[in-house]
TrEMBL record:
Pfam families: DUF2301
Membrane spanning stretches: 98-120, 136-156, 165-185, 197-215, 227-245, 251-270
Full protein name: Integral membrane protein
UniProt GO cellular component terms: chloroplast
Superkingdom classification of source: Eukaryota
Origin organism lineage: Eukaryota, Viridiplantae, Streptophyta, Embryophyta, Tracheophyta
Keywords: Membrane, Transmembrane, Transmembrane helix
């Protein structure tokens, strides 16, 4: 806030006043507040009604201070009523939600980049480069999915841990298949899985975790694209594993998967932050010791009885 303070000091006495008095001097002090890049301007004019004051009179001073500026109004955070009490969104919640959504964007972008190799012509200048380095976007996408699974808000802890365990199993299986199977065959991991359907067993848990995540999103928020992905992801993998799905069908479903995954990740940023938090009071309650949980439940029951 830019602030200007003016202090005026005037002297008065009964001494003789001459008519040739001069304008009073003024002193200006400027201070730059570098942390906010704003100027604070303090002006101290000293005014006198004469140029001479009787030596036996003590001058009297009148000080006037004036401050002017633009006040910033900070609105308090919105309070939501949860099952176990009121809660609000703080900065740590915003950071977690942004990272959660960023992980999904990373996973979707990497998946589309890796899967685009199935649609690019062989003579395209980037096709060879993409196929040679296709495991890089696969690894980046797996990391993005892992970040989202760490930060996802699910009321049932066991479900969250199951998704995380599937992700970890898929990562370990991918590394094992890369080292033990793909490298000896002089192939990338992705290409090896394409050529050897049985290798889906190694990478499948990773996509099972992704299926669980989109199922949760579709169930909680009614997102159509998430609901469709819940069926497309396992259909493509199981169709490839069993060999019962034609290559043309697999490629077509893969294209739908790519489009819906991008749409799903992009639409996450259209939701309010509070949606991905859920009822924060539930998570706060679950983190309490058992004694405090019991006391809180009793308190809430008493409040309901008194209100009724």
């Amino acid at each position: 806030m830019a602030v200007m303070a003016m202090v005026t000091v005037s002297s008065s006495s009964s001494a003789t006043i001459f008519s040739d008095s001069k304008p009073p001097p003024s002193f200006t002090y400027r201070k730059l507040a570098s942390s906010h890049h704003r100027n604070h301007h303090f002006t101290f004019p000293i005014s006198s009604s004469s140029t001479q004051i009787h030596p036996h009179r003590r001058p009297s001073f009148h000080v006037t201070c004036q401050a002017a500026g633009n006040d910033t109004v900070f609105e308090p955070p919105k309070v939501y009523q949860g099952v176990y009490g009121p809660w609000s969104v703080d900065s740590s919640d915003i950071r977690e939600v942004v990272l959660y959504r960023s992980g999904l964007v990373t996973a979707a972008t990497s998946f589309v980049l890796a899967s685009s190799a199935a649609f690019l012509p062989d003579d395209f200048m980037l096709t060879g480069f993409l196929k040679q380095n296709i495991d890089i976007p696969y690894a980046i996408g797996a990391a993005g999915l892992g970040l989202s699974l760490v930060l996802i808000h699910i009321y049932v802890t066991e479900i969250k841990r199951t998704l995380q365990a599937l992700w970890l199993l898929g990562v370990v299986g991918s590394i094992a298949a890369k080292i033990c199977l793909a490298q000896p065959a002089d192939e990338s991991l992705v290409q090896y899985v394409v050529d050897n359907p049985a290798a889906v067993w190694f990478v499948g848990p990773l996509f099972a975790a992704l299926t669980g995540l989109v199922f949760k999103e579709g169930l909680c928020y009614g997102k159509l694209e998430a609901g469709i992905l819940t069926f497309i992801i396992p259909s493509v993998l199981l169709g490839h594993l069993s060999g019962l799905m034609d290559d043309g069908v697999k490629v077509s479903l893969l294209g739908v998967w790519m489009a819906l995954f991008v749409l799903f990740a992009a639409r996450k940023f259209t939701q309010p932050i509070k949606d991905d938090i859920g009822d924060k009071s539930v998570f706060t309650f679950k983190a309490l010791p058992e004694e405090e949980k019991t006391a809180l439940i009793q308190k809430l029951e008493q409040q309901r009885l008194s209100e009724s």
